[in-house]
Structure formats: C-alpha cells, structure tokens
Amino acid sequence: MPDFPPRPPVAKRIERSERLHGELRVDPYAWLRDRDNAEVSAYLEAENAYTAAMTAHTAALRDQLYEEMLARIKEDDSTVPARRGAWFYYSRTEQGKAYPIFCRRHGSVDAPEEIYFDQNLAAAGHEFYQLGALEVSPDHRLLAILEDVAGYEDFTLRVRDLTMGEWLSDRMERLGFGLAWASDSRTLFYLTTDEAKRADRVWRHVLDNDRAADAEVFHEPDVRYNVGAHRARSGAFVVITASSFSDGDVRLVDAARPAEPPSLVRARRARVEYDVEPGDGWLYVCTNENAPNFKVMRAPLAHPGAWEEWLPHRPDVFVEGVVAFRGFVAVQERKRGLRTLRVADLERGETHDVEFPQAAYGIQLGANPEFDASELRFTYSSLATPDTVFDYDLRARTRVVRKKDAVLGGYDESAYAIERLEATAVDGTRVPVSLVYRTPFARDGARPLLLYAYGSYGYTVEPTFNSMRVSLLDRGFAFAIAHVRGGQELGRAWYDDGKMMKKLNTFTDFLAVADHLVRERYTSPDRLAANGGSAGGLLMGVVANRRPDLFRTIVADVPFVDVINTMLDASIPLTAQEWLQWGNPREPDAYACMRAYAPYDNVLPQAYPRMLVTSGVNDSRVAFWEPVKWVAKLRATATGTAPLLLKMNLGAGHGGASGRYERLRETAFRYAFILDQ
Predict the structure, then answer these.
(1) What share of residues in the chain are helix, strand, coil (percent, to 5)?
(2) Pick the catalytic residue: 140, 456, 654, 658?
C-alpha cells in the first residue's frame, strides 16, 4: 500500500506561460494534457492505484451497498408501451444484462413480441457502449442508430432492416448527436462536427448511396452556435436548429419532400431565443422576445414567420416548452420553482392546469409519439415517491396510473419526509432547498447530510426519486438539493443571475444553503458532505477553496475546474460556445470574474475537506486533464492530512460507465467514500 500520494514532476515541465491583463500566468501541470505521453499514463495509473489502496478497507462496505442497491431494483422490468400507428413500442431489461432490450408489438399490447434491437448484443466485446440515437423509420421497417464504443461521443451510424433482420451497408463514422427520418423512410438527416466537436453541419443521406453522394443541407459557420436536427412529432417536418446560449433560429424541411432546401422560420435576432412545435395547421413558437420568462406565439404553417400571441408572458410563470397534438396543446410551465402542466383544448377553446401533490416533486413528459392522441403521458415522482407513469386524458381531465416503479426490499415511502426550505443568500435572495430524510428526524445537528447542486446552463435539478439514495437515507443521512442560481428553477432571471459576470451567485448561494442547514441544525459541518458533477464539479471546487471549514467531505465528479485555461483555448471541444456562458477571458472584465472563482487558479495553502475526484479519460466535455491538474496542484499546495483521491475511468467519458451494473458500482464507491469519511 502506498504511504504517500503520487506527485508528478513539476520543475522541468513548465510548458505554458503567458501574460494576460497584467498577470503572468504559469501552468506547471500543462504537460498532463498529453494523454499519449507515457509519463501521463503512468501518473494516471499511479493515482488509481493510490485510490484503490486508500479505499481498500471499504471493499466490504462497497459490496454491501452494491448488493442492497441492486436488491431494490426489479431487474426483469419493462417500460409502458407507447403507441406509434399500429405498433406499440417499449423497452425491457433482464436479470444479469447491463443494457435494455428494445421491443415492439403489432396491433395490440398482447400481440407477439418482436425484439428490434438488443443493446446487450451490440455492446458485447466493448468495455463501453452508448446510443446517441435510436430511430425507427415512419414505415416501421428500418432502424437507424448512433453508437459510441469509447465514450468520446464520436458516433457511428448503422441502419437495420427490421423485416429481414439484417444490417444494411450504410455506415458512417464520426458523427454528432441527432438523427431524423424523412417521410419516405429512405432519407436520413444526420450531423457532423467540427474540430472542436461542435455540431455544425446537417447532411441528407439516401439509403444505399455512398456517403460521398450525401448533400449538405445546412452549415453554421459561427463557432458560438450548435446545430441540431429532429423529426417533428406531427411528422410534417424535419426541424433544424442553430442555437447559442443567447439566441438562434430554426429551419424546417418538408418531411415529404426531403430534397427541398430548408425554409427559415425567422432570422435570428440578438438575445432572442425561440423553439418551434408544429401542430395541426399551426406552428407554436416558445420565445423570450419581450418576454423574459417566455411566452407562446403561433403562426400558420404556410407563413411560419407571421407570429401572433397565443399565450402571453406572465412574470410569475416560466414557460419551458410546448407539446402539440391534433386537438390539444400542452404547455410545460414552472411556478414557484415546481413544474406544472397547462392544457388547451383547441376544439372547445378551454384551458386548465394539471394539479400535483407534495411539497417538492418532479414531472417528466414522455415521448408522446402519437400526434392524434388525446392522452398525455408523463412521469411523476418526488424525493420519496418512485417514478409513476400516468396517462392523462386531455379532454376528460382524468389520469390513470400505468406503472409505478417497484422498489423491492420492503421500501415504504411513508417512512420518509420531504421539506421545501428557503435559505437567504448574501444579497438577500431566497434560495429554494428540497430535502428528504427518514423519520423520525431530530434537528439536533447530529444527522449527516449530503448536499447536491448543479447551477449552470439553465438546467433545473428536479427533486425526484432515486432508489440508490435510500442506502444513505436508511443509514441516517438527509439528502438536500440546493436550487442555486444558474439553473432555471425560478425562471429565466434565475439562470441569468448565475452566469457570465454574475456567476459568483451560484457559489455563494450554495454556501448560504449549507450555512442555513447547519444553523437550523439539520446537520453540522463535521457531518456535511457535498457533491456535484461537471459544472456542478466546478461548484465543488469553488466551495472547497472558499469554505473548506464548512464541509467534512466533497465528491467532485468530472469537474470543470480549469476554467480560464479551457476558455482560452478554442480548440478544446465546446470552448467557443461557452464564451456566452462563462465569458471570454481575453476580455478584462470576464477574466477578472473568472479569476475570482476558477478552482485551479485559486488553490490555497490551507487544509481542505476530505475529497474524492472522479473523471473519464475519454471525456469530450470536460477534458480528463482538468481534474488531474487540479488534484496535482492540490497535492502540492494544500496543508493538512485529509485524503485527496482521484479515480480515473480509463475506458469511459463524461457520463461514466455505460452499463447499469457498473453504474451501481460507481455509486457504491462514492457512497462508501462518503460514509467512511
């Protein structure tokens, strides 16, 4: 067992220095970016060996956690079938198999099962396997998939003839996310990426033709914009989007005439975002034009740029999106931080809201692939209530439970309590907190508590159920989500107040929540753990630097911690687009803001909490070297004796392991570290 952590050589390896805004920036660990360097590989292996040695005593606990988490899962399970025309599509899992099996039945849910894609067979022989798309053609005869076997999100397109059960010769590599079928079931739209992995082009491919014959449908040259493509739910169009973090535009391709050029809905305007949902004769447009919390416009399909107001802006309601059916429109909204649904009956000219119980909950709309349906499928859950699938009758205003996830092992949701709290930030803003714990609960500061947050990109963390979390709750832990600024829990202003020059609010909000939980005796600093991943890992790095006294332990997953160096290098995937999220450090004000919080730049000679840092060597979103460099700098700078561990997955990317059993083991490892500390 190593008696000291790995320390990479530094003195002879200063590879990068520059003067920026009067400051000489020296990066002594820049050499760790070179994944092909044998010394880098050896260093990563040494870090993994050290982590394995330092956590060897938790092996039995990890196994126990894994077994009990696995025991709660119904391994042989299936999703609720969704109707598409005459077919009913669903997926199921089998005991001992890591991936889902995709199935369908013709005519009724009682018809014989047809397996049209078994992900377990596709993943055989691969350490990692993920799908970027799985799309059945409109005539139900063909399946197109995007698959990635490394975790770097370079996808390969394959097409299967479902009638013959054979893969076609059509095969294209190094594609981005996104596939869309035209109505002829012979034409596919796919995306490619530039050198920085930005989706920038949409292509049209006709089956049985060489890739060289594919036509470029759209190209976005501006590096701030990312391109997407999907088939509209109505089936009338292929929708092509080009969006940055502040504006964008949409183009429509007639799905029945895929060779025709796309038509622009409306040219982009500065700081105006819009999404479109084709309906029956109308195009519904969700936009923030003169509407900070968004509103819904509509336009005739024949004149998509002729917008008229359909649902006006309301300052206290954030409009998240629209789902159109032939006779109905469902609007996904957010009120007081919680998601709600508003339904418009177009024939009767009536609207109503769908009500939900509990103090904190989450709703996720299903695929709802059938445009002519009169039922809306959604999944409801809370921090204590397992996922429950409902079909909601849009006309009768009634709901039917189609499935409630089984949690095996005697789980009783009535044994857990949910609270919705508010903490006061340094500027007086009230920050929502969702909290769950097993009862009885005494607010005496003795309970351990795991506090989670994300707080970037306008992503809202829903207070939903996770059966793995029960392993902590049943060991006395409370679990809390800090709904900090940078998400969109309280509307677009909540997002805007947590990005760019206001990014510090994300971090001070989290610290205010932690202080509140300690002050109100839900926990105490020596019982408080914090966790976040990716941009939430950035949050972990900032709070570790700023308030190491407030947390016993911190787990930072795939953390975005080398903010300035990454934002200075436009060759790194995503960087140029991210200038509208974090700022461009070439600009003095943006640099000063980043310099105040960037974790790698602000490591101090102080005692840090006990920390676990995880990453994947094939990560294309947060390069593996960011957490590696950060850990190396912490090792060289931090005082104290608290453990600092780096766990590098040498065969995966941003999302970690791809199979469900390996994901359970990764969670068991994190939980064992937290419990042990």
Answers:
(1) 25, 35, 40
(2) 654
Distance separating alpha carbons of residues 618 and 196, to the nearest angstrom: 15
User: CA-based angle 212:215:217, to the nearest 5?
Assistant: 150
Query: Does residue 534 carry a catalytic annotation?
Result: yes
CATH homologous superfamily of 128-270 equals Prolyl oligopeptidase, N-terminal domain (2.130.10.120)
Residue 360 near residue 383 (C-beta atoms within 8 A): yes
In this prediction, residue 13 carries a pLDDT of 61
User: Can you give the C-alpha Rg of the chain in angstroms?
Assistant: 25
**DSSP conformational letter for 388:** E
Query: What rounded mean pLDDT belongs to the chain?
Result: 95
Residues with Cβ < 8 Å from 337, sequence gap 6 or more?
Answer: 432, 483, 489, 490
Banded model confidence at residue 15, pLDDT cuts 50, 70, 90 = low
State in Å, rounded, how far the first CA of the chain is from the last one: 19
- Please name the residues in contact with 555: beta carbons below 8 A apart, sequence gap of 6 or more: 529, 530, 531, 540, 611, 612, 613, 614, 670, 673, 674
* pTM given for the model: 0.95
β-strand partners of 343: 330, 352
| CA separation for the pair 398, 380 (Å, rounded) | 15
Encode pLDDT of 325-371 as tens digits: 999 999 999 998 999 999 999 999 999 999 887 788 999 999 999 99
654: annotated active-site residue? yes
Active-site option among 170, 619, 620, 658: 619
- Categorise residue 135: left if φ over 0, alpha if ψ from -120 to 50, beta otherwise: beta
Give the active site residue among 534, 615, 620, 658.
534
Note the pLDDT of residue 177: 96
Which fold would CATH assign to domain 58-69+410-676? Rossmann fold (3.40.50)
619 included as an active-site residue: yes
- Axis-axis angle for helices 38-54, 625-637 (nearest 10): 70
DSSP 257: S
Per DSSP, the three-state class of 428 is: coil
Domain boundaries, the chain: 58-69+410-676, 76-125, 128-270
Q: How many residues does the chain have?
A: 677
Residue 11: predicted pLDDT: 47
Of the candidates 91, 47, 119, the one whose C-alpha atom is nearest the C-alpha of residue 648 is 47
Work out whether strand 23-27 and strand 77-78 pair parallel, antiparallel, or are unpaired.
Answer: unpaired
pLDDT band with cut points at 50, 70 and 90 for residue 1: very low
Range in 35-39, 158-162, 558-562, 650-654 with the lowest mean pLDDT: 650-654
